Amino acid sequence: MKANLVIGLLADGQVHSGESLANQLAVSRTAVWKQVRKAMEQGYRIETIRGKGYRMLTRVDLLSRNAVLERLDSNLRQRVDLSVLDEVDSTNAEVIRRQAEISPGTIPVCIADCQTAGRGRRGRPWRSPRGENIYISFGLTFPGGFAMLDGLSLVFGVAIAEALEVAGAQDIGLKWPNDLYCSGRKLGGILVELQGELEEGVVRVIVGVGLNVHMTAAPDVDQPWTSLARELDGQDWQRNALASALVTSVVGAADEFSASGFSPFRERWQGRDIFSGRQLAAKQGEVAGTGRGIDDQGNYLIESTDGVEAVRAGEISLRVAAP
Fold first, then answer.
1. CA distance 10 to 4
2. Where in the sequence numbering do the catalytic residues fall?
3. Could you read off the pLDDT of 72-87 as tens digits, one per residue?
4. For 177, which DSSP code?
5. Are 10 and 60 in contact (CB under 8 A)?
6. Got the DSSP string for 201-247?
7. CA-CA distance, 149 to 155, in Å (whole number)?
């Protein structure tokens, strides 16, 4: 019996007796207690009330494959091969493993409740607590070879920002090249991995997204961060609805990029640029000046007294210059 089954029954926040839980799950009361204890070890706060039973104190927002799929339109539902996992090392790694098992033309999508080895840019660990956020990856293919993929991480930044704005989020900003911000703090990140050519002129790409939804505490994160729940506390954020919106927007953006390239996304990215007009330093301080947005290839432009220099994605990390 999985702990998620007990969590699902306790998710309403009401008191449930051990006997009623055991009957619903067709197990012993001892088995119920073991799964309650396991859920508590995973971070869920569950109150044990003597003589009455158990009550969930943590807000529960369980992921469900069916709940995500039913929100997709019928055409998209046929195109994606969706898996929703309780735990995985990395959703990017899981998509890579599954690509060999699905039919050509199908888009593998993996969502996990928890990652044990999530990675951010340059291999940095990505904090992936259980039950709080969205960790989702896509296996996509693009025609035209590697030379056609300039600005790809920016494309997906636009797609995710637009999906969140439709869902009710405000003040979504994009930090070049692959971070999402809200109210000046990091909300999420994107990791794009190029896997190689399937055949001549067709490139395989893995796109991973980490998005903070319910997270309210992260003592080991060493930069300003936020979550949707912190920014809009009164809104009932549901991870299944958000995940469905992300699938729709990311796959739609991939189709648009395949058909039209980066051009349709440039102004949409520029309008959310958190560095625009600010004093910046790049390349370990070798380049300093004013942020001027991106060029047609998605490179970031910094204007100094020597002119405008384009900084390539993957080369450096931009930081606001010290006053």
1. 10
2. 121, 186, 319
3. 999 999 999 999 998 8
4. T
5. yes
6. TEEEEEEEEEE-SS----TT--S-B--HHHH-TTS---HHHHHHHHH
7. 10
